[in-house]
Design brief:
Structural class: alpha+beta
Oligomer: single chain
Radius of gyration: 21 Å
Number of helices: 7
CATH superfamily of the largest domain: SGNH hydrolase
CATH architecture of the largest domain: 3-Layer(aba) Sandwich
Distance between the termini: 47 Å
CATH class of the largest domain: Alpha Beta
Helix content: 10-25%
Strand content: 25-35%
């Protein structure tokens, strides 16, 4: 029987598993956005198919719960079955697969715009474990709620695609998914762990320059784990996402999604405000609004800081990395860069934050400070290269997280 969400709020407590009273901490996130229709047509519905997505955790846990989302769906979302398991050597271990339930029911219906939180699953995890979440869509479902991948195509890493959609059938209880094809992440927004010891979360609020596997938030997470710090790092960044306005396919403005993606994350103790470059670059070009002044962008930072402080989080602001050479239409100009520089100076001198990270200084070219240093930027001259990500991730002072 498929249980509507309205009847599925309470957790079912299962003997021997993590319960709702455990010290839950957010372990992974993929903030949702509305997937735009492709230029050559409409979104294609999924029906009688399984969506599987993988993720990595960096702390030990004795149970998991998963937040599913229909944030941008135009119709109720029916999840016919769901499961979670571990990957071993890049393949899902059949013995690790655990069903996910919703107040004891195997299925759930999410109303338009609503999330659904699963019951705790009985699956122990260790730092570095790669998990797979599978969900079965029995009815025709438009993939309207997604997490935009960095780049034009779906992401494929060393363990295969970040997400995949099967051929026909429910494969939530099996390791293999016949007919699987890469996909953006769909309908899953967060995974929480019942940590084996008191643990907090560092939430990174950023854009294209922070989103994706292998970026500096992942490096920071590994360093914290190696140092024995009881902290997860949650990447709540979104491709093309600005602070002050929505962007098609890139989700809501950070000011609009801040509560959902940062403040409501269990165990959140720190937030890194990582980048306001899209507000500057998109204004008057990709987005039909005037470019904000430095004062307007500073006001957005202050509002985020005030809301985080009201919830007891420490706020760390990062300076904006160079923008010169970015290939996007009307994104960069010397006049726009003056705004970036002014806001960076304000971040460093205003004392509005609990701490700052001078990312601009980490990666800029001393001889041409409006540009990345040679070798530290990618081909688009906007996002850091692998070497640039390493320099940032290894350069952040762990003493900021006490």
């Amino acid at each position: 029987m498929i249980r509507p969400l309205a009847a599925a709020f309470a957790f079912t407590l299962i003997a021997g598993t993590a319960s709702a009273q455990e010290p839950w901490v957010a372990a992974w996130a993929a903030p949702p956005a509305q997937q735009p229709a492709p230029a050559n047509g409409a979104l294609k519905p999924l029906e009688d198919q399984t969506v599987r997505q993988r993720l990595t955790v960096t702390v030990a846990g004795r149970g998991e719960r998963v937040t599913f989302t229909n944030a941008y769906g135009s119709k109720p979302l029916t999840i016919g079955a769901a499961s979670i398991g571990k990957l071993v050597n890049g393949k899902l271990d059949p013995a690790s697969i655990r069903p996910l339930t919703f107040s004891g029911a195997a299925s759930v219906v999410l109303p338009i715009g609503a999330p659904a939180l699963s019951d705790p699953a009985d699956l122990k995890t260790a730092p570095g474990d790669v998990l797979a979440i599978s969900l079965y869509l029995p009815k025709a479902t438009l993939p309207e709620t997604y997490h935009r991948p960095p780049g034009a195509a779906e992401v494929v890493g060393k363990d295969g695609p970040e997400a995949a959609v099967s051929g026909k059938g429910d494969f939530t209880r099996t390791a293999e998914m016949p007919g699987a094809a890469p996909s953006p992440r769909l309908f899953v927004s967060r995974v929480d762990l019942a940590a084996t010891r008191p643990t907090g979360a560092v939430v990174v609020l950023g854009t294209t320059r922070q989103e994706g596997e292998g970026r500096w938030p992942d490096i920071l997470a590994r360093r914290l784990a190696a140092a024995g710090r009881p902290l997860t790092v949650i990447n709540a960044s979104m491709v093309a996402s600005p602070l002050t306005h929505p962007y098609p396919g890139g989700g809501d403005a950070a000011l609009a999604r801040f509560d959902r993606d940062v403040l409501l994350a269990p165990g959140a103790r720190y937030v890194i405000l990582a980048d306001g470059a899209n507000d500057i670059g998109q204004g008057g070009g990709l987005y039909p609004a005037p470019t904000p002044t430095a004062e307007e962008l500073e006001a957005a930072y202050l509002q985020l800081a005030s809301r985080a402080h009201a919830r007891g989080l420490k706020v760390i602001a990062a300076t904006m990395m160079p923008m010169a050479g970015a290939p996007f239409p009307n994104f960069y100009s010397p006049e726009k860069d003056l705004i970036r520089q002014a806001v960076n100076t304000w971040i460093l001198t205003s004392k509005a934050f609990d701490a700052v990270i001078d990312m601009d200084r980490m990666v800029r070219d001393p001889a041409q400070p409006l540009h990345f240093a040679p070798g530290l930027d990618s081909a688009n001259h906007f996002t850091p290269s692998e070497a640039g990500e390493k320099k940032i991730g290894e350069g952040i002072d762990l003493g900021l997280f006490r």
